[in-house]
Amino acid sequence: MIMNKKHALNVVCFGEVLWDVFPTHKKIGGAPLNVALRMNSLGVKTTMISCVGKDENGEDILSFLNQHNVSTDFVQITEKYKTGVVNVMINEKGNASYDISYPSAWDKIEKTKPMDALVSKADAFVFGSLVCRDEVSRLTLDHLLAKAKYKILDANLRAPYYTTEILTDLMLKADFIKLNDEELLELSKEMDSPYNSFEQNIKFIAERTNTKQICVTKGAFGAVLYYNDKFYYNSGYFIKVVDTVGAGDSFLATLIVRLLKGKSPQKALNYACAVGALVAGSEGANPDISGKEIKKFMMI
Ligand SMILES: OC[C@H]1O[C@](O)(CO)[C@@H](O)[C@@H]1O
């Protein structure tokens, strides 16, 4: 990755845009969209590649993104499929589970020529595994991965929509992998890791997938960053959890932006953990959080 503090950063996020439907209300969501919104709030020009249906939910997503200055030039509109909707269930600890409608418009992102130039010029390209559940979007992603210069995989495993084969392929192509602790364990086992420790499994995946940068989140207990052969740790910030929806997405967005801006890995990790905690302490995936609020929270 080329660290460049001077030019204005621009990032492309690829994948699901949808409405998270909670028992009493709905909130905008989709992991790559959550990343795009948070990066944008941190001052990075972000473009979303996705697809919505020709319906009210789709119009609402487009206007939300436009209001928040996330470019929608590459959000396709289809008459054949509905805009994505996800039923979100929150348990007593604030942890979420998802019922993700299929097929949704974002399963059908078609490859176009102008996307190639957009992606090849971007400082970073963010994608996840859920978007691979349908062949149309998966092939488009595969094509774009060959163009992107810094590829960030946010695994975001959503059962039953992934296979170890697809995951391994995505990890092999990625320059940076983000997992949570459960995902690390699951993937290490699937890949026949002989280890039990966190660090050994991270190194194992790094070697197997030829990836120098891996970050693993640990919920309330912070995160571990393996960055060019060194480990960095943050043990978490205390927050009363409202719901964990999108906390990992905002964490990743913040971490990547800080690293791209040339901050030290440790400082970038600390800042990202604080943002993740603040999101978990608010409703939905995309609460507004100011720089002032983050700094104040980190001083507690
Ligand atoms: O992307 C699938 C689901 O995961 C989330 O992004 C949270 O990480 C939700 O907003 C969405 O419904």
In short:
The protein has helices at residues 31-41, 56-67, 113-121, 135-145, 164-173, 181-190, 198-209, 247-260, 265-280, 291-299; strands at 10-14, 18-21, 26-29, 45-53, 75-78, 84-90, 96-100, 124-128, 151-154, 176-180, 213-217, 223-227, 230-234.
Give structural notes:
The radius of gyration is 18 Å and the shape is globular. A hairpin with a 5-residue loop joins strand 11 (213-217) and strand 12 (223-227). 38% of the residues lie in helices and 22% in strands. The longest helix is centred in the last third of the chain and has 16 residues, at 265-280. The protein has a single domain, classed as Ribokinase (UDP-N-acetylmuramoyl-L-alanine:D-glutamate ligase, 3-Layer(aba) Sandwich), CATH 3.40.1190.20. The strands form two sheets. Strands 5-4-1-8-9-10-11-12-13 form a nine-stranded mixed β-sheet, sandwiched between helices. Strands 3-2-6-7 form a four-stranded mixed β-sheet. The protein is of the alpha/beta class. It has helices at 31-41, 56-67, 113-121, 135-145, 164-173, 181-190, 198-209, 247-260, 265-280, 291-299; strands spanning 10-14, 18-21, 26-29, 45-53, 75-78, 84-90, 96-100, 124-128, 151-154, 176-180, 213-217, 223-227, 230-234. The site of beta-D-fructofuranose has 17 residues, from strand 2, helix 1 and helix 8.
Question: Total number of helical segments?
Answer: 10
C-alpha termini separation: 33 Å
Global mean pLDDT = 94
Bound molecules: beta-D-fructofuranose
CATH superfamily: Ribokinase
Percentage of residues in helical conformation:
25-40%
Shape: globular
Structural classification: alpha/beta
CATH third-level topology = UDP-N-acetylmuramoyl-L-alanine:D-glutamate ligase
Major sheet summary line: 9 strands, mixed
- Can you list the strand order of the major beta sheet? 5-4-1-8-9-10-11-12-13
CATH class: Alpha Beta
Query: Using only CA atoms, what is the Rg?
Result: 18 Å
According to DSSP, the number of beta strands is 13
Low-confidence stretches: none
Give the strand content.
15-25%
The number of domains is: 1
Keywords: Kinase, Transferase
InterPro entries: Carboh/pur_kinase_PfkB_CS, PfkB_Carbo_kinase, PfkB_dom, Ribokinase-like
Protein name: Fructokinase
Family: Belongs to the carbohydrate kinase PfkB family.
